[in-house]
């Protein structure tokens, strides 16, 4: 049985028990369908070996070896990852183009008695839908930008807005990055994986309701925003959080507690700013790191690095700014701030 993908939301609606990517581990690591597990028909080394035989000896010899390796790997998966699956289990299987690898594994699992579906067109069919969503169609919902200088708790407010029923896109969450040199959470997804996450989120939006997006540049760490979203963001009205520098500095110390706890890492990031600032200023900042003067360091970084860049970035964005002033950014103040912004977002007619 084959399954044809007609929209990015089809996978959730079909409710397969397991989505299985039978491509090699490196292919899976670069990108895969949401929630898919990797049970490779061929390892990376095996795939390379079969490909070499195909080119240097003959396609027939390569197919013989490939069949033997796939059968051996399928047996391993049946004895391990799939051994406890019940009789009613319904997997969806895919490979690169929906061809030999997924076809071979599907046949073997079907013979066991499971109701196996194979994704028509494989990963390439999925990728075509992602590209269409992000590069060929206009952004589907009106956008409201949540703006504010570094340390104004935008990301935390965005999460609270979602809890209040506001439609949001968490770009930093999908990119696994807090949007600055100091903001890495760990390894970022590949560009393709980021685009897949984003496309699914966009496809799930209600086009009749505005979506709140944190104001970003066109790049979040190593992940680039697609042009349709970036154009919508540049033209969108903004709700801007305005907080005093002292309140923002205190918030940054709490929000970046992982860096405060690792002065060596923090010093290395400060050093990476050398191309943008005079040597004397970098030396002053490194001295603040050594002293553990976190509040003073945060204030300096906001004043000389982040605020000027935010201001230049805003000059390229659309008009229409609603400012929300707040004097403190403690936990209770942020909850109140989220309530105020949720009300403003709801009152913004079609995000304009």
Give the topology.
Blueprint: E1 2-3, H1 10-14, E2 18-21, H2 25-30, E3 37-38, H3 44-56, H4 59-79, E4 91-94, H5 100-112, E5 117-119, H6 122-136, E6 143-148, H7 154-163, E7 168-169, H8 171-175, H9 191-203, E8 211-214, E9 219-220, E10 223-224, H10 227-235, E11 238-242, H11 245-255, H12 257-260, H13 263-271, H14 279-291, H15 294-314, E12 321-325, H16 331-347
Parallel strand pairs: 1-5, 2-3, 2-4, 4-5, 6-8, 6-11, 7-8, 11-12
Antiparallel strand pairs: 9-10
Helix pairs in contact: 3-4, 4-5, 6-9, 7-16, 11-15, 13-14, 14-15
Description:
With 352 residues, this protein is an alpha/beta fold. The protein has two domains: 2-132, 3-Layer(aba) Sandwich (Oxidized Rhodanese, domain 1), CATH 3.40.250; 142-347, 3-Layer(aba) Sandwich (Rossmann fold), CATH 3.40.50. The protein has 16 helices and twelve strands. The chain has helices spanning 10-14, 25-30, 44-56, 59-79, 100-112, 122-136, 154-163, 171-175, 191-203, 227-235, 245-255, 257-260, 263-271, 279-291, 294-314, 331-347; strands spanning 2-3, 18-21, 37-38, 91-94, 117-119, 143-148, 168-169, 211-214, 219-220, 223-224, 238-242, 321-325. Strands 1-5-4-2-3 form a five-stranded parallel β-sheet. Helix 3 packs antiparallel against helix 4, helix 4 crosses helix 5 and helix 7 packs across helix 16 (331-347). The protein is elongated, with a radius of gyration of 25 Å. The two termini are 47 Å apart. The mean pLDDT is 92. One of its GO terms (biological process) is tRNA wobble uridine modification. It holds the Pfam family Rhodanese. It comes from Haematobacter massiliensis.
